TrEMBL record, chain A:
Name of the gene encoding the protein in the UniProt record: Taf1b
Name of this protein: TATA box-binding protein-associated factor RNA polymerase I subunit B
Biological processes, Gene Ontology terms: nucleolar large rRNA transcription by RNA polymerase I
Lineage: Eukaryota, Metazoa, Chordata, Craniata, Vertebrata
Native species: Cricetulus griseus
Annotated family: Belongs to the RRN7/TAF1B family.
Subcellular location: Nucleus, Nucleolus
GO cellular component: RNA polymerase I core factor complex; RNA polymerase transcription factor SL1 complex
TrEMBL record, chain B:
Location(s) in or outside the cell: Nucleus, Nucleolus
Protein name: TATA box-binding protein-associated factor RNA polymerase I subunit A
GO CC annotations on file: microtubule cytoskeleton; nucleoplasm; RNA polymerase transcription factor SL1 complex
Single GO BP term: transcription by RNA polymerase I
The protein's assembly and partners: Component of the transcription factor SL1/TIF-IB complex, composed of TBP and at least TAF1A, TAF1B, TAF1C and TAF1D. In the complex interacts directly with TBP, TAF1A and TAF1B. Interaction of the SL1/TIF-IB subunits with TBP excludes interaction of TBP with the transcription factor IID (TFIID) subunits.
Amino acid sequence: MLPLMLGRVRKARTWDLGCLQEILKSFTERCSQCAAVSWGLTDEGKYYCTSCHNVTDRSEEVVSTAVITNTKINSISRGLRKRSKHEKGWDWYVCEGFQCILYHQAEALKTLGVGAELKNEVLHNLWKRYLQKSKQAYCKNPVRTRGRKAKVLGDNLQSSDCASELELLSDTTLESGAEFQSDPQIPKPFPLVKASPKSEAADVCSGSVDGVEYSEWKEKGVLKMTVPRTLALCYLSLLWQRETITLSDLLRFVEEDRIPYVNAFQLFPEEMKVYGRDKGIFAVESWPDYEDIYKNMIEVAIFLDLPRFPDVTEDCYLHPNILCMKYLLELNLPEMHSLTCQVVKMTGIGEVDFLTFDPIAKKKRTVKYDVQAVAVIVVVLKLLFLLDDKLEWSYSSLAEAYNEEHREDEPQFDFRKWYQVMKKTFDEKRQKWEEARAKYSWKTKRPIYRSHIDKSVMYKRREMVEHLQKQFSALVGSTPVAEKKDPSSFQFNWTEGDTGSPCFHGHSLQGLLRTKGQSLITKNSLYWLSTQKFCKSYCKHVTTYEESNFSLSYQFILSIFSFLLRIKTSILHEEVSLIEKKLFEKKYNESKKRSRPKKVRRH
Amino acid sequence: MSDFDEELTKLALAEDGKRETSVFSNPGMHFPWLQERIETVVTGGKKKRDFAQTTSACLSFIQEALLKHQWQQAAEYMHSYLQTLEDSDTYKRQNAPEVIWKLGSEILFYHPKSNVETFNNFADRMKNIGVLNYLKISLQHALYLIHHGKLEDANRNLSDAETWRYGEKSSSQEVLINLVQAYKGLLQYHTWSKKKTELSEIDKDDYAYTSETGNSGNQSCRTSTSICALLKTPGVWDPFVKSYVEMLEFCEDRDGAREILTNYAYDEKFPSNPNAHIYLYEFLKREKAPRAKLISVLKILHEIVPSHPLMLEFHTLLRKSDTEEHQKLGLSVLFEFLDFAGCTKNITAWKYLAKCLKQTLMEGHLVWVEEEWMSRRSWWPTFHFSFFWAKSDWKADADLACEKAFVVGILLGKGCRYFRYIVKQDHETLKKKIKRMKKCVKKYSIVNPGVCT
């Protein structure tokens, strides 16, 4: 199971509340002011009425020493008194919230077919390591507000029914021991940048115990957890496990609502109230962005000080050779795997050292496996067809003529036909995608209000929206909602006959290649570069992708390929440029010395 | 090159077209990246929330569906668009109810599955989201009910809206409250006038008649208070004014009616409104007001709408007047009336003009005619008197052609083709008339014969 602190904390609390409730139940007199029978205990052990806050003279001599000696009870009863005004719920911490989100994300990944070790071992350890590194738990002096969390952990370890969990916690990769012992010291609160006195103003509040402090917590060198970073953690663990899910797949699953992300807080148990400052922490009104999650992933990896990841070898899904094969199928292209492999080999992007993520050695960058594989395909298409809005069409005419004459043979790949099919299919797909996005419902049944004043308004508004929605859905009628397809890393299936779109997988590249000695080479001997010049070092200038500078075929290919990955075209273009740099730099430098031709001759 | 290459180029052109229409680029100069930059500046460097992006996409889908009358699809998108009521952007959230009301009421008005009940439900909900839209929605709701013949419900609705108060917010919406009251008044007028027609069928000596007239008197009093307030605010309130005046006249409150109409026509704060003058003129005519007064009212109308049918009446009024000034104006009223394409076949106007020209010239005011003709010399011949018109006028209405021929004879001389064509026609009944006309033209034509074509 995932780190079970959450479960443990809750168990402890229900037990505490149980005791408390028993004590309170025994006192059944009516309140002298409002005649209600609803009592709470004050810190001093006196009864107070929860409906009118009248404090009685009668105090409770608690028999159970186990309860009275436990400081936790005090804080809970304090919590009760303070919170009863607004929301009754558990005391919970922000990191517990994130843990809950991670838990559900890991569960979702498991249902998507990812091995159970990912959740039980990898993600669990990463999360523990995160808590440790950010000094929130599993360390000597955890930063804590009104320090309770660490204690809860300690207390629970002593209860016998947590034995199984204990096993989990005595993880060998983490230094065990000190952090689990009941800590007599009072843990430090979150070091705030400006030591603001805990404001009791009505508009500064949070459902979590430390939401306000957490949102103001700024400490150098500490990477605060955010919802996008939970995804980064998920991806790190997928990468560690070398699972067959790329980052773009992961993000697509998020967008398809298969992995909790937007409004993930609605998966919190009912008793975990989310409001006030929690909104800034947990509410997300955007889908994850590829670049953003990628950046976060590297940041998190560096922060966690992770060692080199397991090697990405040729038999791994993430290896460009395999990914290229996958994307060739997805993009309805014929067998050009040997060509992609050749490009991969020549550029050296298939090397283990290049592919394997090593946060310590290769700071600030790793391979975008999916984007890279697609970029390789773009390069291969450029090698074959030049994509200058001329050559590809004349080759198409040749292929068309050939296919007319040789109806019985294996058809030659006709770029024009492929373009027509892909354009139509992708336009439809994109249209559907846009419509689905426009219909996306961002708001949940649990509105998050910023302050208690807003609460009733927010709930009323919610109710109103639901009512109106009901009215309009009655008008929509019984159009069958397109049932959710099973999750797949493939978005297109061309081999199925019923789609009506021809499949190009079996077409040959015969008309595009010629034999030269022993080997086959491309008929087209020209190539144009996506950048005007190669930079000395890794620089950003390649990122500006001005569409109008490029041929229409190239634009089309970039646009459908990047839609497949749901990334910006400029990112793919950048990746193409990087591969071209690797492929041609030597040649380019040589030819530059001789003259300055615009087009680089290949071979 | 094959057609397929063209397809690609077409595609590119379409894309270009799209770019050119964007706000930030002038034709011939476009920066695709600029739009993005500007957007990030607007959002303070932060990426636009996908929430904002999808809801605005949703809005355009709704608009598209409405445009194509796809009510079902529109309702589907509306279902998602409702979440803008919960937008965390305060400004957008405050604007959401109005947008939703406008879209939603449109959908519910046309949707085949929608009915009055659904609409009522929706309107009642929307009224109570925020306070600013209450009156507007109530009013539109009432109009919807009126449209569906539910007058009583509409009345009840308006009564509710009338008594609605919300501190300062209601005082800022005074016009709306007045409008609500006025519509209520209009509904009262409707019942009153229905009763009136019923009464006109009953015998006057009948017992029922006297009691009913008393009732309708009361009703008009109530109506007056409802409509009166609105009529004090500048605006175009034609139906209200018309019905209100009708009721006042019925109660023999002529002074009241006159005051209302005069105010409506002459108050400078009100926008210029031809109907205001028409109502006043018609009222004064019913009252048998002196000619001078009638002329003064129509003079203003003439300035606003020189092509109004009442201008012919205006002309006869002016002809009856003795002053030279009015005589001259009478002539120019006709000329101006005929300047408009919609009036070219108005036989009365041509008849009047023929008569007026003849008389004016007989009285020796050649200058007046020349003055009017000066500015029209260049275009009237082709506009009214082309050979084509001669043929078609004669075919359609020989009388009209005759009148026109007379006018053209006077203005352009007997040599012009229109005139020659009409004169050439051999017609039994019109023979005499044409002969007379020829004589007249010879005598009065303002041009020397032979000069014109």
